[in-house]
Fold Type-5 uracil-DNA glycosylase.
Amino acid sequence: MTDAPLRTSSDDRARAERPLLAAGAPTLRAVDELVTGCFACPRLVAWREEVGRVRRAAFRDEEYWARPVPSFGDPAAQVVVVGLAPAAHGGNRTGRMFTGDRSGDVLFAALHRTGFASSPVSVRADDGLELRGVRLVAPVHCAPPDNRPTPDERRRCAPYLARELELLSPTVRVAVVLGGFGWQALMSTLTEQGWAVPRPRPTFGHGAAVRLLHTDGRSLVVLGCYHVSQQNTFTGRLTPEMLDAVLVEARDLAHA
């Protein structure tokens, strides 16, 4: 048997610097490949791997993905849905954004009702589900402890979101943002990319709508929606009807 090659400090450094390579990624697939091999945030690396080893009792017989979770959806999307980060026992387990947890159950059911998804259920990365006209993205691609990435972790992960938005620019017309964290992250990225984001920045809120113009003449409508967390969906702060209304608005604006 051949011994496995030793991992050197230069290997670790190269993998930690992967976000810096995102700006030169030629395709969305190339961005996804950079994401899945990223080790830029030590705290998140430790947490995602620990969760994958310890596992939740309900999933103790499953092999966890336990890596950064790439975005998912149509490479020619007119709408992007901006979340927060993968869930420890959802995307961190299945390897697909918003798949395998209660939040994903709510989101994919709504995407199906509004014509964006081929199925109302997303169980695992190879279940055959397809998204049409929409791509699910996140400011942070690793599951964070307590679902709370730090500002530094968001900044280190930001080049991935920035490059995705650049590559989607020929088609994307609307961004649906789930929650205040994603809203702030997206506004920061858009400002850096030359979009005319007002100062002070628009405030997040469910139903908020902001039309932004780019220096090259493009326009993007940003819609706010409460996050599909259990805290919101179980208490009725976000109902299926409210979520559907935002997605229908996004669909209509994208095709206006």
